Amino acid sequence: MPENELNVMEGGLTALQRVAICFAAGVIGALAVVLFSHVLFRLGLSETLGVKAPVSLKSPDIYKPLFWGGLWGIPFGLLLETIWNRLYLWGLLYFLAPVLALFLFFLPMAGAGYFGLQMGGPKFTLYLLLVNVPFGIVTALVARAIIGNTP
């Protein structure tokens, strides 16, 4: 290994490495959300909250949430060095960033209104909050497992 690459490894990861790791961690976090939607459906909670079916596991439907999860992992990777000491707390709260984008941008653009209230009312909003909870914490756990002790 060239000497300059060795120094980078001794001093921690570069920002690009953290972003790449967190992109992959975000994909796995999104997979946790998709699988959690199936758990909620099997438990009957999804239907109680007005959702007729879990997220599809078939191609090409599965790729969209996984890709978006990876994209949402990028800002997490940029923050990683700063939040490392409280990684799991930040991971738990980080799911709110993509959920707020969903509530305030993506759902209104799809005609479901802010917070998805025109699609299923407050129950649907609650479902979206609940089903997305695993994203941030799983992303943090996977990032920590890949990185180890020092970002």
Give a description of the structure.
30% of the residues are buried. The protein has 151 residues and is an all-alpha fold. It is 75% helix and 0% strand. The protein contains eight helices and no strands. α2 (15-42) packs across α8 and α5 runs antiparallel to α8 (134-147).
Keywords:
mainly alpha; 75% helix; 0% strand
Chart the SSEs and their pairings:
Blueprint: H1 3-10, H2 15-42, H3 45-48, H4 63-83, H5 87-94, H6 96-109, H7 117-132, H8 134-147
* Average pLDDT reading: 92
- Fraction of residues in β-strands: under 5%
Shape: elongated
**Helix content range:** over 70%
Query: Count the helices. How many?
Result: 8
Tell me the major beta sheet: none
Sketch the topology as an H/E string, one letter per element.
HHHHHHHH
User: How many strands appear in the DSSP assignment?
Assistant: 0
Backbone structural class: mainly alpha
| Unreliably modeled segments | 3-9
Question: Compute the gyration radius: what is it?
Answer: 17 Å
How many angstroms does the end-to-end distance come to? 20 Å
Short description:
With 151 residues, this protein is mainly α. The chain contains 8 helices and no strands.
